[in-house]
Amino acid sequence: MRAYGMEQFAQQTIGLLDHLDLEDAVVGGTSLGANVTLNVASIAPERLRGMIIEMPVLDNALLGCAIAFTPLMVALTFGEPVMKLLQSGAKAIPSRAVPFWGDVTLDWVRQDPGPSAAVIQGLFFGRVAPPQSERETFQTPAIIIGHPRDPCIRSPTLTRWRTS
Question: Which helix (H) or strand (E) holds 49?
């Protein structure tokens, strides 16, 4: 699970910039992808020209995520044989045979349960995002996207970013 944490994904993003021979770039993501971006800002701020942050999972959302994802983590980790059976069944259904959102759901079920469980375990046992005290020091220009009831967008740090 250590290979599936947000800090490791940030290191991989920096590695991709290196591979592409890019000195800096605008990096962004949605949800956990936004968390990867925030971790890039923490690890290598000089590599960022800008950030696009859409609905990150921050400190005030961790309890809700734990409540939502714990059953899924248990199912993927301890019910892996059953999940592999579901995966086989989902793979047998052609994408064109179901509506778009049905295929999105089937695509999730088609994934190998092992890495999916490792990602969730990495979230539970690793750092999801830099702490607010560190985020407040970020100088990289950022566009913050979210919905009005999103508690992450109402955080003082992101409000400051959004209005500057």
Answer: strand 48-54
